[in-house]
User: Fold this.
Amino acid sequence: MNIEACPKIELHLHLEGAAPPHFIRQLAAEKHEDIGGIFAANGDYKFSDFRHFLKVYEAATSVLTGPEDFYRLTCEVLQQSAEQGVIYTEVFVSPDFCGGCDLAAWQEYLAAIEQAAARSEREFGIVAKGIVTCIRHFGPDQARKAARCAAETAGDFIVGFGMGGDELQGKQGDFAYGFDMAREAQLHLTTHAGEWGGAESVRQAVFDLKVERIGHGIQVINDPSLVDELVARQITLEVCPGSNVALGGYPTLDAHPVNDLRSAGVKTTISTDDPPFFHTTLGQEYRQLADTFGWTSKDFTALNKTAAEAAFCSAETRQSLLERLEKT
Assistant:
Protein backbone atom coordinates (compact mmCIF):
# COMPACT_ATOMS: atom_id res chain seq x y z
CA MET A 1 0.00 0.00 0.00
CA ASN A 2 1.22 3.50 -0.84
CA ILE A 3 1.31 5.12 2.61
CA GLU A 4 0.81 8.64 1.33
CA ALA A 5 -2.13 7.62 -0.87
CA CYS A 6 -3.93 5.43 1.69
CA PRO A 7 -7.39 6.45 2.95
CA LYS A 8 -7.02 8.73 5.95
CA ILE A 9 -9.12 10.10 8.80
CA GLU A 10 -8.15 13.44 10.32
CA LEU A 11 -9.60 14.60 13.64
CA HIS A 12 -7.61 17.76 14.43
CA LEU A 13 -7.80 20.42 11.73
CA HIS A 14 -8.53 24.10 12.31
CA LEU A 15 -10.64 25.37 9.43
CA GLU A 16 -9.19 28.88 9.47
CA GLY A 17 -5.71 27.54 10.17
CA ALA A 18 -5.88 25.40 7.04
CA ALA A 19 -6.35 28.47 4.81
CA PRO A 20 -3.46 28.56 2.31
CA PRO A 21 -1.50 31.84 2.25
CA HIS A 22 -2.50 32.48 -1.37
CA PHE A 23 -6.17 32.20 -0.39
CA ILE A 24 -5.80 34.76 2.41
CA ARG A 25 -3.76 37.12 0.21
CA GLN A 26 -6.40 36.93 -2.51
CA LEU A 27 -9.21 37.72 -0.08
CA ALA A 28 -7.24 40.62 1.35
CA ALA A 29 -6.62 41.99 -2.15
CA GLU A 30 -10.31 41.69 -3.07
CA LYS A 31 -11.23 43.66 0.06
CA HIS A 32 -8.35 46.13 -0.26
CA GLU A 33 -7.13 45.18 3.21
CA ASP A 34 -3.50 45.44 4.25
CA ILE A 35 -2.42 42.48 6.37
CA GLY A 36 1.23 42.82 5.48
CA GLY A 37 3.83 41.56 7.87
CA ILE A 38 2.39 38.08 8.30
CA PHE A 39 4.01 36.68 5.15
CA ALA A 40 7.61 35.75 4.43
CA ALA A 41 9.38 36.77 1.22
CA ASN A 42 8.42 33.45 -0.39
CA GLY A 43 4.73 34.01 0.42
CA ASP A 44 4.47 31.62 3.37
CA TYR A 45 3.11 32.61 6.76
CA LYS A 46 5.81 34.08 9.00
CA PHE A 47 6.00 33.72 12.79
CA SER A 48 8.67 33.22 15.45
CA ASP A 49 7.04 31.22 18.26
CA PHE A 50 3.69 29.92 19.47
CA ARG A 51 2.28 33.22 20.74
CA HIS A 52 3.45 35.03 17.61
CA PHE A 53 1.81 32.24 15.61
CA LEU A 54 -1.50 32.98 17.38
CA LYS A 55 -1.23 36.66 16.40
CA VAL A 56 -0.46 35.83 12.77
CA TYR A 57 -3.32 33.31 12.78
CA GLU A 58 -5.78 35.95 14.00
CA ALA A 59 -4.47 38.51 11.48
CA ALA A 60 -4.98 36.01 8.66
CA THR A 61 -8.53 35.19 9.80
CA SER A 62 -9.39 38.90 9.99
CA VAL A 63 -10.10 38.92 6.24
CA LEU A 64 -12.71 36.16 6.66
CA THR A 65 -15.60 38.51 7.29
CA GLY A 66 -18.74 36.85 5.93
CA PRO A 67 -20.46 33.54 5.24
CA GLU A 68 -19.37 33.56 1.59
CA ASP A 69 -15.73 33.76 2.69
CA PHE A 70 -16.20 30.68 4.85
CA TYR A 71 -18.00 28.87 2.04
CA ARG A 72 -14.99 29.44 -0.22
CA LEU A 73 -12.58 28.55 2.57
CA THR A 74 -14.35 25.29 3.38
CA CYS A 75 -14.38 24.22 -0.27
CA GLU A 76 -10.67 25.01 -0.56
CA VAL A 77 -9.68 23.19 2.62
CA LEU A 78 -11.75 20.08 1.98
CA GLN A 79 -10.46 19.76 -1.58
CA GLN A 80 -6.92 19.91 -0.23
CA SER A 81 -7.72 17.25 2.34
CA ALA A 82 -9.34 15.00 -0.25
CA GLU A 83 -6.24 15.29 -2.41
CA GLN A 84 -4.29 13.86 0.54
CA GLY A 85 -6.57 10.82 0.65
CA VAL A 86 -8.68 12.04 3.56
CA ILE A 87 -12.09 10.37 3.52
CA TYR A 88 -13.37 11.85 6.78
CA THR A 89 -12.35 14.95 8.69
CA GLU A 90 -13.49 16.89 11.71
CA VAL A 91 -12.76 20.61 11.45
CA PHE A 92 -12.57 23.06 14.32
CA VAL A 93 -14.75 26.10 13.68
CA SER A 94 -15.01 29.04 16.05
CA PRO A 95 -18.06 31.30 16.46
CA ASP A 96 -15.57 33.96 17.58
CA PHE A 97 -14.37 34.16 13.97
CA CYS A 98 -17.88 33.68 12.57
CA GLY A 99 -19.94 36.62 13.74
CA GLY A 100 -18.33 37.26 17.11
CA CYS A 101 -20.37 34.55 18.88
CA ASP A 102 -23.67 36.22 17.94
CA LEU A 103 -26.03 33.27 17.55
CA ALA A 104 -27.95 34.59 14.53
CA ALA A 105 -24.74 35.49 12.70
CA TRP A 106 -23.18 32.15 13.63
CA GLN A 107 -26.13 30.31 12.12
CA GLU A 108 -25.60 32.14 8.82
CA TYR A 109 -21.90 31.32 8.77
CA LEU A 110 -22.60 27.73 9.71
CA ALA A 111 -25.14 27.32 6.92
CA ALA A 112 -22.49 28.40 4.41
CA ILE A 113 -19.92 25.99 5.88
CA GLU A 114 -22.41 23.12 5.77
CA GLN A 115 -23.30 23.88 2.15
CA ALA A 116 -19.62 23.80 1.24
CA ALA A 117 -19.15 20.53 3.12
CA ALA A 118 -22.07 18.96 1.27
CA ARG A 119 -20.67 20.12 -2.07
CA SER A 120 -17.23 18.75 -1.20
CA GLU A 121 -18.70 15.39 -0.26
CA ARG A 122 -20.46 15.21 -3.63
CA GLU A 123 -17.43 16.29 -5.62
CA PHE A 124 -14.53 14.74 -3.69
CA GLY A 125 -16.06 11.98 -1.55
CA ILE A 126 -14.83 13.52 1.70
CA VAL A 127 -17.16 13.56 4.71
CA ALA A 128 -16.72 16.54 7.06
CA LYS A 129 -18.15 17.30 10.49
CA GLY A 130 -17.67 20.36 12.68
CA ILE A 131 -16.38 20.82 16.21
CA VAL A 132 -17.19 24.23 17.68
CA THR A 133 -14.22 25.67 19.56
CA CYS A 134 -13.97 28.41 22.11
CA ILE A 135 -10.73 30.40 22.23
CA ARG A 136 -8.98 29.98 25.56
CA HIS A 137 -7.23 33.34 25.69
CA PHE A 138 -10.55 35.11 25.05
CA GLY A 139 -11.65 33.98 28.52
CA PRO A 140 -14.39 31.85 30.15
CA ASP A 141 -17.22 34.34 29.57
CA GLN A 142 -16.62 34.37 25.83
CA ALA A 143 -16.31 30.58 25.93
CA ARG A 144 -19.84 30.38 27.32
CA LYS A 145 -21.09 32.31 24.28
CA ALA A 146 -19.29 29.89 21.96
CA ALA A 147 -20.75 26.95 23.88
CA ARG A 148 -24.24 28.39 23.50
CA CYS A 149 -23.68 28.66 19.74
CA ALA A 150 -22.57 25.03 19.75
CA ALA A 151 -25.50 23.81 21.84
CA GLU A 152 -28.05 25.66 19.72
CA THR A 153 -26.70 24.21 16.46
CA ALA A 154 -25.81 20.67 17.58
CA GLY A 155 -26.89 18.10 15.02
CA ASP A 156 -25.72 16.17 12.02
CA PHE A 157 -22.88 18.55 11.16
CA ILE A 158 -21.91 20.06 14.53
CA VAL A 159 -20.94 17.01 16.54
CA GLY A 160 -18.52 18.31 19.16
CA PHE A 161 -17.23 21.14 21.30
CA GLY A 162 -13.65 21.93 22.20
CA MET A 163 -11.14 24.60 23.11
CA GLY A 164 -8.09 25.98 21.34
CA GLY A 165 -5.94 29.07 21.81
CA ASP A 166 -3.22 29.88 24.32
CA GLU A 167 -2.94 26.86 26.60
CA LEU A 168 -1.00 28.85 29.20
CA GLN A 169 -3.94 31.14 29.95
CA GLY A 170 -5.91 30.02 33.01
CA LYS A 171 -6.83 26.44 33.82
CA GLN A 172 -8.98 23.93 31.97
CA GLY A 173 -11.50 23.94 34.82
CA ASP A 174 -12.14 27.67 34.34
CA PHE A 175 -14.10 26.67 31.24
CA ALA A 176 -16.17 23.88 32.81
CA TYR A 177 -19.45 25.79 32.47
CA GLY A 178 -19.18 25.95 28.70
CA PHE A 179 -18.20 22.29 28.46
CA ASP A 180 -21.09 21.29 30.72
CA MET A 181 -23.46 23.24 28.46
CA ALA A 182 -22.12 21.43 25.40
CA ARG A 183 -22.35 18.06 27.15
CA GLU A 184 -26.00 18.71 28.00
CA ALA A 185 -26.58 19.32 24.28
CA GLN A 186 -25.16 15.82 23.71
CA LEU A 187 -22.06 17.11 21.97
CA HIS A 188 -18.80 15.18 22.21
CA LEU A 189 -15.91 16.94 23.95
CA THR A 190 -12.24 17.57 23.24
CA THR A 191 -9.74 20.23 24.30
CA HIS A 192 -6.19 21.28 23.55
CA ALA A 193 -3.95 20.16 26.42
CA GLY A 194 -0.43 18.90 26.95
CA GLU A 195 1.00 20.85 24.04
CA TRP A 196 2.49 23.63 26.18
CA GLY A 197 0.87 23.27 29.61
CA GLY A 198 2.63 20.10 30.70
CA ALA A 199 1.08 16.84 31.82
CA GLU A 200 -0.88 18.76 34.46
CA SER A 201 -3.01 20.41 31.77
CA VAL A 202 -3.91 16.93 30.49
CA ARG A 203 -4.89 15.90 34.01
CA GLN A 204 -7.15 18.97 34.25
CA ALA A 205 -8.73 18.15 30.89
CA VAL A 206 -9.50 14.59 31.99
CA PHE A 207 -10.78 15.30 35.48
CA ASP A 208 -12.16 18.87 35.27
CA LEU A 209 -13.64 18.88 31.75
CA LYS A 210 -14.21 15.12 31.36
CA VAL A 211 -13.31 15.13 27.67
CA GLU A 212 -13.31 12.09 25.38
CA ARG A 213 -10.36 13.22 23.29
CA ILE A 214 -7.41 15.54 23.81
CA GLY A 215 -5.82 17.74 21.19
CA HIS A 216 -2.06 17.12 21.21
CA GLY A 217 -1.70 15.71 24.75
CA ILE A 218 1.89 14.71 24.08
CA GLN A 219 3.41 16.07 27.31
CA VAL A 220 1.49 13.41 29.19
CA ILE A 221 4.52 11.22 28.46
CA ASN A 222 6.20 12.93 31.45
CA ASP A 223 3.62 11.49 33.87
CA PRO A 224 3.54 7.66 33.66
CA SER A 225 0.57 7.37 36.03
CA LEU A 226 -1.44 9.72 33.84
CA VAL A 227 -0.44 7.74 30.76
CA ASP A 228 -1.95 4.70 32.49
CA GLU A 229 -5.08 6.76 33.24
CA LEU A 230 -5.51 7.67 29.57
CA VAL A 231 -5.16 4.00 28.62
CA ALA A 232 -7.67 2.92 31.27
CA ARG A 233 -10.19 5.59 30.25
CA GLN A 234 -9.53 4.95 26.54
CA ILE A 235 -9.06 8.65 25.87
CA THR A 236 -7.78 9.35 22.38
CA LEU A 237 -5.02 11.82 21.56
CA GLU A 238 -5.20 13.96 18.44
CA VAL A 239 -1.44 14.12 17.81
CA CYS A 240 0.02 16.62 15.34
CA PRO A 241 3.74 15.81 15.10
CA GLY A 242 4.67 18.29 12.37
CA SER A 243 2.99 21.12 14.27
CA ASN A 244 4.81 20.23 17.50
CA VAL A 245 8.20 20.26 15.77
CA ALA A 246 7.49 23.42 13.72
CA LEU A 247 6.51 25.38 16.83
CA GLY A 248 9.53 24.19 18.79
CA GLY A 249 7.86 21.81 21.21
CA TYR A 250 10.37 19.17 20.11
CA PRO A 251 13.60 19.81 18.21
CA THR A 252 13.15 16.95 15.73
CA LEU A 253 10.59 14.32 14.89
CA ASP A 254 12.71 11.52 16.32
CA ALA A 255 12.53 13.29 19.71
CA HIS A 256 8.72 13.38 19.54
CA PRO A 257 6.92 11.04 22.00
CA VAL A 258 4.25 9.78 19.59
CA ASN A 259 5.92 6.42 19.15
CA ASP A 260 6.36 5.97 22.91
CA LEU A 261 2.71 6.90 23.50
CA ARG A 262 1.57 4.28 21.02
CA SER A 263 3.85 1.69 22.60
CA ALA A 264 2.33 2.50 26.00
CA GLY A 265 -1.11 1.69 24.65
CA VAL A 266 -2.48 5.23 24.39
CA LYS A 267 -5.07 5.60 21.64
CA THR A 268 -3.35 7.82 19.10
CA THR A 269 -4.34 9.51 15.85
CA ILE A 270 -2.37 11.70 13.42
CA SER A 271 -3.42 15.13 12.16
CA THR A 272 -1.91 18.29 10.69
CA ASP A 273 -3.40 21.02 12.95
CA ASP A 274 -2.79 24.10 10.72
CA PRO A 275 -0.97 22.58 7.73
CA PRO A 276 0.02 25.62 5.64
CA PHE A 277 1.49 27.33 8.70
CA PHE A 278 3.70 24.31 9.35
CA HIS A 279 4.56 23.46 5.71
CA THR A 280 2.99 20.04 5.94
CA THR A 281 0.28 17.79 4.55
CA LEU A 282 -1.20 14.63 6.02
CA GLY A 283 0.57 12.56 3.37
CA GLN A 284 3.86 14.19 4.31
CA GLU A 285 3.20 13.50 8.00
CA TYR A 286 2.70 9.82 7.22
CA ARG A 287 5.87 9.58 5.14
CA GLN A 288 8.01 11.27 7.78
CA LEU A 289 6.59 9.07 10.55
CA ALA A 290 7.31 5.99 8.47
CA ASP A 291 10.87 7.15 7.81
CA THR A 292 11.51 8.14 11.42
CA PHE A 293 9.86 5.33 13.37
CA GLY A 294 9.69 2.55 10.81
CA TRP A 295 5.89 2.53 10.79
CA THR A 296 4.37 0.37 8.06
CA SER A 297 1.04 0.27 6.28
CA LYS A 298 -0.27 -1.88 9.16
CA ASP A 299 0.53 0.90 11.61
CA PHE A 300 -1.27 3.50 9.54
CA THR A 301 -4.28 1.26 9.03
CA ALA A 302 -4.41 0.78 12.81
CA LEU A 303 -4.09 4.53 13.39
CA ASN A 304 -6.95 5.24 11.02
CA LYS A 305 -9.15 2.59 12.61
CA THR A 306 -8.47 4.22 15.97
CA ALA A 307 -9.46 7.56 14.44
CA ALA A 308 -12.68 6.09 13.04
CA GLU A 309 -13.57 4.65 16.43
CA ALA A 310 -12.82 7.98 18.15
CA ALA A 311 -14.64 10.13 15.59
CA PHE A 312 -17.61 12.14 16.84
CA CYS A 313 -19.80 10.93 13.98
CA SER A 314 -22.87 8.69 13.97
CA ALA A 315 -22.56 4.93 14.35
CA GLU A 316 -23.66 4.56 10.73
CA THR A 317 -20.92 6.87 9.44
CA ARG A 318 -18.35 5.13 11.64
CA GLN A 319 -19.28 1.73 10.24
CA SER A 320 -18.99 3.07 6.71
CA LEU A 321 -15.51 4.45 7.47
CA LEU A 322 -14.34 1.18 8.99
CA GLU A 323 -15.58 -0.71 5.95
CA ARG A 324 -13.65 1.62 3.65
CA LEU A 325 -10.52 1.14 5.73
CA GLU A 326 -10.93 -2.64 5.67
CA LYS A 327 -10.62 -2.55 1.89
CA THR A 328 -7.12 -1.07 2.00
